[in-house]
Amino acid sequence: MLFCNSLRPKLTLSATRTFSCLVQSKAFINGNWINASTNETFEVINPANGRIVGSVPNMNVNDAVQAVQAAKNAFEQSEWSKFTAKERSSLLKKWFNLIEKNGNEISEIMSAESGKPINEARGEVAYGNAFIEWFAEEARRIYGDIIPSAAKDREIIVLKQPLGVAALITPWNFPLAMITRKAGAALAAGCTIVIKPAEDTPLTALALVKLAEEAGFPDGVINIVTTNNAAPIGDLFCKSPDVRGISFTGSTEVGKWLFRNSSDGIKRISLELGGNAPFIVFNTANLEKAVDAAIASKFRNCGQTCVSANRFFLQDEIHNKFIDLLKQKVEALKVGDGSKQDVQIGPLINSMQFNKVSSYVEDARSKGGKILFGGRPLEDLGKLFYSPTIISNVPSNAKLYSEEIFGPVVSIVKFKTEEEVIRAANNSRRGLAGYFFSENIQQVFRVARLLEVGMVGVNEGLISAAEAPFGGVKESGIGREGSHHGIDEYVEIKYICMGNLKY
Ligand code: ADP
């Protein structure tokens, strides 16, 4: 294989398989695969069985300074700064093709380090790679304007120019797509990047960068820093004048910290934070469709998705019927080690998540919530497995109602009127996604406009796509990713006034 590196240890994916060559044990700065300056490393663990999947450099702020410097030099001095839009597009296309070609191997790495079922991991590779393809196409359409001037001797010209160095901080729940969604747009715009992947899932990120190296991006254009101590590096990104933009996907708490901390440098910031998505089923809904969508929206990635349905609001007439149908499907879900083909739900990512989900369920139960299915750990499978769970009668003072669950728990509330449910749905400081099911066209348009969220699924539970703008309102974030809007996060608008023209 192209990437075989004799120094790389053979890493075990499961009892019967070994990884091939995309597993990296070094980080990548200025075109070189390197160790941390301290030579420290940290281990990557498979959450399904606690086995070590790999080990990567535990870099510190000095290493990150090198990465930022490399990205700055590449932006200002390397051939990259002179690349045409078409050349950037071609490189992105090469990267896309390589990711596609190596999709199976990347899926295996992702499934092993995140616990995600292998079929979902394959789906994420296709979904995530669609951003590289999309932005390869968009790279050639970053148009400016010529605006009619009020003065006879002037032309108003507007250009879009790349920001400079962009720092991309990504979470573990979509180890590939959260990188490609940012990196595709940044590179299409002409920025250079420093990626800081999540400590739980650095191997997928490194594999992606390995393929970018093969695609031929010039040295310093793409850098990646791995660490299990993110805060000092986040601080550097916030404070360094050489970093012109930060794009972050992760917790609201860290997002707020980055926002505050980068304010001094008036830095471009794009934040994709947590949600608290309502999933409303009206009496007019097609219940079969609604139940299928509920399963897809709730249980994908074991519920560890920021757009996952968080609060299920069921209208009084269909409440019991919906629960019956849902229960039948939830009972049939197969939980287990994600490397097995038929498994639909894997483990939670780590013990912090596991404890959070367990404690939220206990909290709801103690406040009057009624467990209809699950509501307990699945110890026989491993330490981090939690049963798919359905709880009804969830009171509004339960954490399940007001906080993002990030686990396989359907939390149900009954409602009577449309007005009441809109008020309840919007009574949240977050506003990422919202879903509702109705066959009444008047209601569809009305409710879609009234929900205070950045994305609405109408009779649909999975809404993310490379072509569509992803992002939230309120405390769910700033900016959009994907679609042609995604490029805006990485460009500056420059106005050129051509004066004293004689026509
Ligand atoms: P989660 O709770 O889902 O792990 P986090 O917001 O903690 O979400 O993590 C998302 C990403 O942000 C990860 O890459 C993590 O390492 C990184 N991160 C966490 N804290 C900081 C910080 N203070 N500065 C920069 N990045 C951080």
Features of the shown structure:
503 residues, alpha/beta, Aldehyde Dehydrogenase, Chain A, domain 2, 2 domains, seven-stranded mixed beta sheet, 14 helices, 35% helix, 21% strand, disordered N terminus, binds adenosine-5'-diphosphate, succinate-semialdehyde dehydrogenase (NAD+) activity, Succinate-semialdehyde dehydrogenase [NADP(+)] GabD, Ald_DH_N, oxidoreductase, Aldehyde_DH_Superfamily
> What proportion strand?
15-25%
User: What is the second-level CATH architecture of the largest domain?
Assistant: 3-Layer(aba) Sandwich
Helix content: 25-40%
Mean pLDDT: 95
Describe this protein's structure:
The chain has 503 residues and is an alpha/beta fold. The chain folds into 2 domains: 27-273 and 478-492, Aldehyde Dehydrogenase, Chain A, domain 1; 277-465, 3-Layer(aba) Sandwich (Aldehyde Dehydrogenase, Chain A, domain 2). The chain is built from 14 helices and 24 strands. The chain has a 7-stranded mixed sheet with strand order 16-17-18-15-14-20-21, with helices on both faces. Strands 11-10-9-12-13-23 form a 6-stranded mixed sheet, sandwiched between helices. It has a 3-stranded antiparallel sheet with strand order 7-8-24, with no helix packed on it. A hairpin with a 2-residue loop joins β3 (27-29) and β4. α1 packs parallel to α7 and α2 packs antiparallel against α5. The protein is globular. Bound molecules: adenosine-5'-diphosphate. Adenosine-5'-diphosphate binds next to α7 and α8. It comes from Zeugodacus cucurbitae (Melon fruit fly).
